[in-house]
UniProtKB/TrEMBL annotation:
Species annotation: Triticum urartu (Red wild einkorn)
Main location: membrane
Keywords for the protein's UniProt record, in alphabetical order: Cell membrane, Glycoprotein, GPI-anchor, Lipoprotein, Membrane, Proteoglycan, Repeat, Signal
Family: Belongs to the fasciclin-like AGP family.
Signal peptide: 1-21
Region ranges (Disordered): 326-403
Pfam families in UniProt: Fasciclin (PF02469)
This protein's name: FAS1 domain-containing protein
Tree of life domain: Eukaryota
Localization annotation: Cell membrane
Matches recorded under InterPro entries: FAS1_dom_sf (IPR036378), FAS1_domain (IPR000782), Plant_FLA (IPR033254)
Residues of the FAS1 domain: 180-320
Gene of this entry: LOC125539302
Membrane topology, record value: Lipid-anchor; GPI-anchor
General function of this protein: May be a cell surface adhesion protein.
Length: 426
């Protein structure tokens, strides 16, 4: 009996180890020759995208190759280059030299961004003459500039780190939009956040956002539909100072793309934060679904409309309501004014107090976006981004399918073995 228990415990520990998460930056910290590559993984937050994958192969560059790549590129372009060097399947030296037919197409992180058209997000792995293995973009006419050099780290069927001679590129890869040249309000208008754009301009908060862009900014922009949600408090009754606080509450003073948001724990300071726990947000993540939690309600991160290190702009499904302004009381019942934000006056013209918690005492708590909001106003763009995460989820599932299958089958077999051994010995 005791022996059986010890064996079961040992196998359980083995299973846990097989499913453990990896940390690519920690792994590369032990290799000084990849320090520049590792530094760019952290700066661009591609490390969080890699760590969020159960099966991945990282093609790393030495400091010399990485320096040549990044010499004249923006961080946004470097980020795409690193994504193209990240394969969403497990490859070790043995697999590289035994490709079926001598060649194979595989998916990369770049494919998951939504910016890749055609075969841009795929890499062709081919056995070349002389025993070399080459990597090239699947775009027609691409050359095999990158070749396999050596294996750095292998954690079978979860993580493989392979050194390659050169980056993988193709014409058009380095054309990412720059935050410095971005007209923020025009970007928000195009993303279906016109009312939010008008509010940040009329309140002057757009200048606060722009001042934060150099060091790091993450913006959560409510869509126009969010301002028509049932139960939304009448924002037109806020004082000028409270309106500014509300809008600053929709931004973090740091760069946090969606993959990085998933890793954040506890209270996250916003631009409105004035002390410990004041005007903070928290993240609720489940799979690829990410929501921002105010303590009163949750708002889903619907899409990313700009990701240019160190600035990212996400759209959210509902207005983020801080308890510091709305007292933690239930939101007004359906019928509350939802049109006020469209014509909200400038701060100096608004002096009405914030909504009283007592006034809303008996009204049901607002739970956006559990039900569909009213039809958007006529000036709302036809391509509102609220549905894009479904496409992201499908892309992620497809990207993980090849590599994750081997891991799933292996763990399932181990679980069956545990049950069989336990039944025999007990």
């Amino acid at each position: 009996m005791a022996a059986a228990r010890r064996l079961l415990l040992l196998l359980a520990v083995t299973l846990a180890a097989a499913a453990r998460a990896h940390n690519i930056t920690d792994i590369l910290d032990g290799y000084s020759e990849y320090s520049l590559y590792n530094n760019y993984l952290s700066q661009t937050k591609v490390c969080d995208e890699i760590n969020g994958r159960s099966t991945v192969t990282c093609l790393v560059l030495t400091n010399g190759a990485m320096s040549s790549l990044a010499a004249n590129l923006s961080l946004a372009d470097v980020k795409n280059a690193l994504r193209l060097l990240t394969l969403l399947d497990y490859y070790d030296p043995k697999k590289l030299h035994s490709l079926h037919g001598g060649s194979e197409l595989t998916t990369t992180l770049y494919q998951t961004t939504g910016d890749a058209s055609g075969d841009m997000g795929h890499v062709n792995i081919t056995n070349l003459r002389g025993g070399k293995v080459g990597f090239a973009s699947a775009e027609p006419g691409s050359k095999f500039q990158a070749t396999y050099t050596k294996s750095v780290k292998e954690e079978p069927y979860n993580l493989s780190v392979l050194e390659v001679s050169d980056p993988i590129t193709f014409p058009g890869l380095f054309t990412s939009p720059s935050a410095a040249s971005t007209n923020l309000t025009a970007l928000l208008d195009k993303a279906g956040c016109k009312r939010f754009a008008r509010l940040i301009v009329s309140s002057g908060v757009v200048k606060t956002y722009q001042a934060a862009m150099d060091k790091g900014l993450t913006l959560f922009a409510p869509t126009d539909d969010a301002f028509q949600a049932k139960g939304l408090p009448d924002l037109g009754k806020l004082t000028g100072a409270d309106l500014v606080a509300l809008l600053e509450y929709h931004a973090l003073p740091q760069y946090a793309p969606k993959a990085s948001l998933k890793t954040m724990k506890g209270g996250i300071p916003t631009l409105a934060s004035t002390g410990k726990g004041k005007y903070d947000l928290s993240v609720v993540a489940k799979g690829d679904d990410v929501s921002m939690d105010t303590g009163m309600d949750k708002s889903r991160v619907a899409s990313t409309v700009l990701d240019d290190t160190p600035v990212t702009v996400h759209t959210v499904d509902s207005v983020l309501l801080p308890p510091e302004l709305f007292g933690g009381a239930p939101s007004p019942a359906p019928g509350a004014s939802a049109d006020a934000p469209a014509s909200a006056p400038a701060p100096e013209a608004s002096s009405a107090p914030a909504p009283s918690p007592n006034h809303d005492k008996t009204k049901p708590k607002h739970k956006s976006p559990a039900h569909s909001p009213p039809a958007p106003p006529a000036d709302t763009p036809d391509t509102a981004p609220a549905e894009s995460p479904e496409g992201d989820e499908e892309a992620d599932k497809a990207d993980d399918k090849n590599g994750a299958t081997a891991v799933s089958m292996g763990i399932a077999a181990m679980v069956a073995s545990v049950a069989l051994v336990g039944a025999t010995l007990l």
